[in-house]
Amino acid sequence: MDIRAEENKLFQKWIDNTHVEDFVFDGVVNPSEWYEMPIRIVFLLKETNGFRDDLRVFLDSGGRWMTWNNVARWTYALRQMYIKDVNPQWESVNRINKEKRKYNLRKVAVINVKKQMGGTTTNTVKLIEIFRKYNKEFFVEQLNMLGHIDFLICCGKGVATCVEESVNEELLWKRIRSGVRRATTLKGTVVVDFFHPQSRYRSKELFLLFCEAVSPKYA
User: Fold this and answer.
1) Distance in angstroms (rounded) separating the CA atoms of residues 7 and 28
2) Cα–Cα–Cα angle for 154, 190, 211, rounded to 5 degrees
3) Cut 0.85: pTM above it
4) Dihedral, CA atoms, 74, 78, 79, 81, nearest 10 degrees?
5) pLDDT at 47 over 90
6) Coil, helix or strand for 22?
């Protein structure tokens, strides 16, 4: 399947049905690397911060350090744990350059629950209302076209609520700590209700919290 063509076809239908302006394309960053990954990782965010272009192309070239350094670190952590079977070390990702970002981001999918650009802050209540009214049906279709997803990382308030309303089952959350929750769907997808990559926590704190949240010990 040509995932990029399928995504674009869905997005055109999405636009035609919702008349959304400034629609931001997202999804699988690099199709070739996505299909080669032993585990499939999807990061869900709320909306882009002033970004209007194709997010897939932007991230395939490495993106920028804001937001995406931490997403690259978290991808590294999952790869270390579930592919290499070793404990991820902060020292290995303390310094992130464009090449490290590119290497990790090409292995994941990144999806915004709202396809329009936003600002530095998001009204969570309004985000969920817009999702229910315009985006839920198409969001479910976008997730389904990815096949089996091993990890669904919800970044920021309100994103996990959108997922709960989309998986058509009750998620039994386990609270890890610091507000982080984790659940597993009937299909075996691990869903993590986590912080936004640009949250108030330091990068190292977020990394350690993330490693704990996705740890196999909570399976």
Assistant:
1) 9
2) 75
3) yes
4) 130
5) no
6) coil
Query: Quick one: angle between helices 65-82 and 98-105, nearest 10?
Result: 60
- Contact of 24 with 50, CB cutoff 8 Å: no
Q: What is the mean pLDDT of residues 89-111?
A: 97
Could you give the 3-state DSSP secondary structure of residue 184?
A: strand
Instruction: Check residue 35 and report its DSSP letter.
Output: H
pLDDT average, residue stretch 118-128: 76
**What are the structure tokens assigned to 117, written together?**
């650009």
Query: For position 146, what pLDDT does the model report?
Result: 96
| Residue 11: C-alpha distances to residues 40, 59, 74, 191, 192 (Å) | 21, 18, 27, 24, 26
Closest among 1, 67, 3, 79 to 40, alpha carbons compared: 79
